[in-house]
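Posted in: Protein Modeling Q&A

I'm a second-year student putting together a small comparison for a lab meeting, and my supervisor asked me to include a predicted structure for DNA-binding NarL/FixJ family response regulator. I've never done this before, so apologies if this is the wrong subforum. The sequence is pasted below exactly as I got it from our records. If anyone can share the structure token output, I'd also love a short note on what stands out.
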Amino acid sequence: MLREGLIALLQQETDIEVVGQASHGLELLRMTRQLTPDVVIADVSMSMMGGIEVARRVRGELLSSRVLCLSATALHGQVLEALEAGALGYVLKNNGYGELARAIRHAYRHQVFLSSELVAPVMNACRAGQASASDTAGQPLTWREREVTRLFAEGCSTREVATRLHISAKTVATHRSHVFRKLNIHSVADLTRYAVKEGMTSLG
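Accepted answer (user: helix_wrangler)
Welcome! Here is the predicted structure, written out as tokens:
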């Protein structure tokens, strides 16, 4: 319903053409490869593959499409992860349609766009990250380690994390071991507290 509503609104814009729609992340990535749209709107919580991973794949494959992430939550850690993955924008679902249209036009011009309420928290998080860079002894988490951390914090099992990220359970265990070592923690509970503190998840 949300997707169909957005399409109906976008089709009213004289400078925007909708060339396709997808029901999950893997389908979206396949269509991006085939249709090479100027801008891709990727829901962060899509099934099969989330919007952040879609952005990362698009950048990794050197596709020309620009990715906008759409989300229901304003987690600064997730916004930073999306930008690091190559997304050119992050738009919140609870804002007006006009903001999404502006974001699309910004992305088309290769300009970064964030929902207004995200700008200050993201900037503060960037400053805090720079100030506390020594906390991990010069070994910050990689984007994949951040993904694994977030999913474990949200209660996923090793097998579920592997399925969500399309990697093996053994690889997931290796990433978790690296995270524990880098953060000097020893349990999933500690991992969850870290994820909440860093804004990777809203669990409290």
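A couple of things worth pointing out for your meeting: DSSP finds ten helices and four strands in the chain. The radius of gyration is 17 Å.
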